[in-house]
Design goal:
The protein is mostly beta strands. It contains two helices and seven strands. Strands 1, 2, 3 and 4 form a four-stranded mixed sheet that branches. Strands 6-5-7 form a three-stranded antiparallel sheet, with helices on one face.
């Protein structure tokens, strides 16, 4: 059985740049609406209230499994453009009664003002996250920057940007 987690982010473009912020991982649609209500009153988010994006990511799925050959080249964080395809057989992580998940990303600095970052996936345990990192350390692109992996344990249904931007 596959499980998925909801991801709420905020992506906007102004006259200078495009920016994306990961707001949190959630286990229900109701939680998404609650988190939007919390975020939309904060500085930055309230200036772009139409820019919230909801995706779904399959738990324990490794993205970028083949590695990479070129930099994405966005300053700051780059996340997958869209979520995973979730079919009717995939269930919410709510059924697993998880309180936390493990988010894995990879980044390195190209130059002073340019970072390259890839979102690897969301995992049900630290062990699963560490296994994903070990697999990717041998893949093109990642093996040149093997120390660039970040594993973060994050609470489900908690807003990550509490003060806005």
């Amino acid at each position: 059985m596959e499980y998925f987690v909801y991801v709420l982010s905020h992506a906007y473009t102004d006259e200078w740049h495009t920016d994306s912020k990961l707001l949190g991982f959630l286990n229900s649609l109701k939680g998404i609406e609650e988190m939007k209500k919390q975020a939309v009153i904060l500085p930055g988010f309230k200036e772009y209230p139409e820019c919230f994006v909801v995706n779904q990511y399959i738990l324990d799925k490794i993205h970028w499994v083949e590695g990479f050959h070129e930099a994405i080249g966005e300053m700051g964080r780059d996340y997958l453009e869209k979520g995973d395809e979730v079919d009717k057989n995939c269930r919410s992580v709510k059924e697993l009664e998880l309180n936390t998940i493990f988010s894995v990303s990879h980044y390195y600095t190209i130059d002073t003002h340019l970072d390259d970052e890839r979102y690897i996936g969301v995992f049900s345990s630290l062990d699963q996250a560490e296994k994903a990192v070990e697999v990717l350390k041998m893949k093109p692109g990642f093996k040149s920057h093997a120390d660039g992996f970040d594993i973060s344990e994050l609470d489900l249904n908690v807003l990550l940007w509490k003060s806005g931007f």
